[in-house]
Write a structure and sequence with these properties.
single chain; alpha+beta; SH3 type barrels; 5-stranded antiparallel β-sheet; 31% helix
């Protein structure tokens, strides 16, 4: 029964010529141009003013192009020369040693009179070379 129903439809499909399909045109939207704006100029100004403001969540983060990478340069120089440094923590404790490596959040200190330490950068107040006198 199903074969009898399929026969007329296949006959009609084979009777069509390719000329019917050639005249069809594919319509694609132009992606290069934006549609014209219909909102009033005053609404556009308000929207621009809202987007120009800093978010209320806190200060803006620095763009990567604004970074000088001075911290990275300092750490690399101290690691290569194996300079003994003193790390002063926020609680006043001083750690003396050589910086072995660093990453975004911490530095590894190799100490001669104790075990190696992993010091988190947010806990560091400042760093100075061990040979220099501390200026207060």
């Amino acid at each position: 029964m199903k074969e009898a129903m399929d026969a007329p439809t296949t006959r009609q499909a084979t009777e069509r010529t390719d000329e019917e399909f050639v005249s069809r045109k594919l319509i694609r939207p132009s992606l290069g141009s934006a549609p014209p704006r219909t909102e009033p100029v005053s609404e556009r100004r308000e929207r621009l003013e809202r987007t120009d403001r800093a978010p209320s969540g806190g200060p803006r983060r620095m763009n990567s192009s604004d970074q000088t990478h001075a911290e990275n340069y300092y750490y690399q120089k101290q690691i290569q020369s194996k300079t003994p440094v003193v790390v002063v923590l926020k609680d006043g404790e001083q750690i003396q040693g050589v910086i072995e490596w660093y990453d975004r959040t911490c530095i590894k200190m190799a100490r001669t009179n104790g075990s190696n330490l992993l010091v988190y950068k947010p806990s560091i107040r400042y760093i100075y070379k061990a040979g220099e006198a501390q200026k207060t």
